[in-house]
Each structure stands twice: as structure tokens, then as C-alpha cells.
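WARN  no MSA supplied for this record, continuing single-sequence
INFO  ligand: beta-D-galactopyranuronic acid
INFO  echoing inputs
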Amino acid sequence: MVTTSLVALIAAAGAAQACEITLRSSDTHPEGYPTVAAVEAMGDMLEERSDGRICVEVFHSAQLGEEKDTIEQTQLGVIDLNRVSLGPFNNIIEETKVFSLPYIFRSVEHMHNVVDGEIGDEILGEFSNHDLVGLAYYDGGSRSFYNSQKPITSIEDIEGLKFRVMQSDVFVDMVDALGGNATPLPYGEVYSSIQTGVIDGAENNWPSFESSGHYEVAGYYTLDQHLIVPEVLVMSKMKFDSLSEEDQALIRQAAKDSMPIMREQWAAREKASEEKVRAAGVEIVENIDKTPFIEAMDVVYEKHVTSDKLKDLVTRIRAVE
Ligand code: GTR
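INFO  complex generated
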């Protein structure tokens, strides 16, 4: 046993030594979550294709901090790679707002068609004006409301409830428009805030609702699916620009190649998380009438889609099949 672990240790040290460039990558999710697994898979491809010169080290479970802070750190070049939701970019990169608008995507398939096409490339391109390089899109399913108080079966039930949202004005206005009270908070503070009654609930997809344990403190989940926000893998522009063109191309390609791996894992994890949450006895409200929710969002669009550029993007997104 001792010999085996010693051999493994030496092998690991050897591999680490061979890496000329080690990219430190941040993720708020735990080991095994599809986003974490996808960036690890990207690292494996990169290491192989660069003959062991370029490695990726994924710091999962918010070891490097909460998303808003890690984004700043990535812009400053302290963190090299970062896998985050697009939501926290809304207040920094205007154009990302269009993918964070409630009910902008008709389905996950529609979202895939948009991000895989020219609009997706355009939005990724915007990151380079903000000290970042947009590398790839990942899935974030659809987000719905959960809370500790009561089943939400119609828009009226939201009245007066306090919901945590990601740190973006679009989401604050979204909850306000539904009659609730929005509190922007870092992801890591949501569990205890629901538990202590500081907030009544939050909103997220099946895998996050499950992996964060929020379902243990919020026993009502209403599948209103108000948001389908893609997630992104970004890189520090400073770090990216310091590399050779060949290495930049290797990184871009490995990131793109991790997308199908992510989508496959996501589909499986969504099912597994849903089963776990249902088995735990969470009351799920399904098949609600979404029309009043969609109609209530007009004010959010009026407030946030003001420039010609954003208006044009919204029209083009809607035109995608
Ligand atoms: C998750 C997403 C995370 C984070 C989190 C949140 O679905 O994968 O990147 O944004 O939601 O609500 O903060």
C-alpha cells in the first residue's frame, strides 16, 4: 500500500513538474458537478494536446471565493480561468443582459441554437473589452422559484415573499415585477439565510437546488422556469495575451470541445438531482400557467432593453428557431 501511494505521489509530482503553464480555475460548485467535470475534461485534453506543457487546476466549491469576487480577480489576472453564470456579468458587460432576460429563450434547445450561432460568438466577443476572454458556454438548465413558506401556484402567491437573486439588477427587477422582494446575495449565503428566515427562498435549476442542499430548507419548488441563463467559461485576458498564438488556439479549442461533454453530464445530473429532491419530499408545483409570469416581465424588458444594440439582439434571438 505504502509503495503504491508513493509511486502515485511521485507520478503526480512528475506530471506537475512537466506543466510549464498551470491555469488556476474557479468554480462555485462541488466536485462532480457537471461544470467542474467539464473544466477538468478540458484540462485533460489540453494537457494531452500540449504534450503535458499546459495543465488546468480546478478549485471547486468556491475555494477561490464567491462569483462576483472571482470575476474581479480574473479581470485582474489573479485567477486564470473562471466558470460562472452569465448573470453576475450583467452589471459589467451590458450585452450579457440579453441572455439573462426572463423567458427570452423558449426552451433549452432554443438557447443552444442561439449560443452555438453567431449571436453566441458576438456576446463571447464582448468579454475582451472587459479584461476577459470568453471561451465557451455551458448549460444552466432553467431556473425556478423555491421557498420555505408555501407552494406558489400563481403569481399572487409571490406577493411579499423575499427571494435571493444573483447579483444583477435584471433579477432584482424581475422579482419586484412579480410582487416579491429581491435580495441580491452570494450563492454561499443562501442556505443559512433561508434557514434563519432572513429570506424566504431563492431560485435555481435542479442540480443547484440539490447540490447546495437548499431543498433541505426550502420545501416548495414551483416550476415556472422564468430563466434559462447560460453559463460561461472565461479566461483572464492578461494571462491569455501572455501566451503564444499556438497555445491560445489550443485553449480555445479544448474549451469548445468540453461543451458536448458538459451537455451530456448536465442532462444526466438534472435527472439525478430531480429524483433526489422528489425523494426528499419537496412539494413540486408543476404545469402552472406561465402567461401571467411572462406578461409581468414587460417592465423588465422596458427598463433594461433600452439601447438599439440590445433591442436588435433581442429581436435576433427571438428570430432564431
Ligand atoms: C447556479 C450557477 C452558479 C451560480 C448559482 C447562483 O445555477 O451554476 O454559477 O450562479 O447558480 O445562483 O449563484
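The longest strand covers residues 220-227.
INFO  checksum written, moving to next record
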